[in-house]
Amino acid sequence: MTGYETIKVERRGRVGLITLDRPEALNALNTQLMDEVVAAAGEFDRDPEVGALVLTGSERAFAAGADIKEMASLEFADAYLSGLFTGWEAFTRLRKPVVAAVAGYALGGGCELAMMCDILLAADTARFGQPEIKLGVIPGMGGTQRLTRAIGKAKAMDLVLTGRMMDAEEAERSGLVARIVPVADLLDEAVKLAATIAEMSPVATLMAKEAVNRAFETTLAEGVYFERRLFNGAFATADQKEGMAAFAEKRPPNFEGR
Ligand code: CO8
């Protein structure tokens, strides 16, 4: 995992940590950064020693959006034919849980990238917004859809149509973020959270992520049916036997991922 120029990548125990690192542009998401994040995250996703990922930025910005300077002179055909930024779709197909640790600005594509993650942990300094309307465009990496699902139409319209930012308190109140922590503790808390997830049965963890995400793609009846199939399937794993035996024997489980 070397040779990256726009991100830093490290392992902390069973947690794969990716840090966006374009400080000169407040971590604006250009094509190189997208390709590097997708490559590094994909490697962690395939690594059996990794159980969960953390994606973070700097104290000043998680990411201040897609790179406006890269996009400014594009014509329709350039954007359409190149499939501009569609590489991020691979990020949404990661199978392991990803914790977004957000401090400072998470704007435009930055907010959209945070919403592609599975759990959003915010520093008290975090500020979220979809300011694309002020640039004469609209969100293009899922913002109108994921934000609306996360916080409902009223607030999504408010943010998308005015481009205003919301602070961490409002984001938590609205259901966008799971928890707020002091900015100084953000990374430690995010890694701790990911490490907790990484201690669970890997099979059950992937099943749980898959099942929750299904809720956004299907009807309630189909979603419950999908969940039941996975739930029943969990009884074919050694980890289910171990988890339930450990409970009965009043000891911590030792999951082997089988
Ligand atoms: N792109 C490129 N460069 C950026 C970006 C960005 N999104 N944001 C900040 N920068 C750069 C600035 O240009 C500046 O560089 P320089 O020093 O060379 O001028 C440097 O980062 C520092 O920024 P500021 O001096 O502006 O810092 P401030 O603290 O004064 O302001 C803000 C911080 C409020 C975050 C401000 O930088 C800002 O408003 N940034 C733009 C936010 C924005 O509009 N984001 C949305 C971008 S559009 C988008 O994300 C669309 C996504 C969908 C695309 C999908 C296509 C299919």
Automatic annotation (TrEMBL):
Tell me the enzyme class.
Answer: lyase
Function summary:
Could possibly oxidize fatty acids using specific components.
Q: Which GO terms describe its biological process?
A: fatty acid beta-oxidation
A single Gene Ontology molecular function, please?
enoyl-CoA hydratase activity
Classify the source by domain of life. Bacteria
Query: Is Transferase found in the keyword set?
Result: no
- Presence of keyword Nucleotidyltransferase: no
Please report the name of this protein according to its UniProt entry: Probable enoyl-CoA hydratase echA8
Per UniProt, the keywords (alphabetical) are:
Fatty acid metabolism, Lipid metabolism, Lyase
| Documented EC number(s) | 4.2.1.17
Family, as annotated: Belongs to the enoyl-CoA hydratase/isomerase family.
Q: Which SUPFAM superfamilies match?
A: ClpP/crotonase
Tell me which PROSITE patterns the record gives: ENOYL_COA_HYDRATASE
What reaction(s) does this enzyme catalyze?
a 4-saturated-(3S)-3-hydroxyacyl-CoA = a (3E)-enoyl-CoA + H2O; a (3S)-3-hydroxyacyl-CoA = a (2E)-enoyl-CoA + H2O
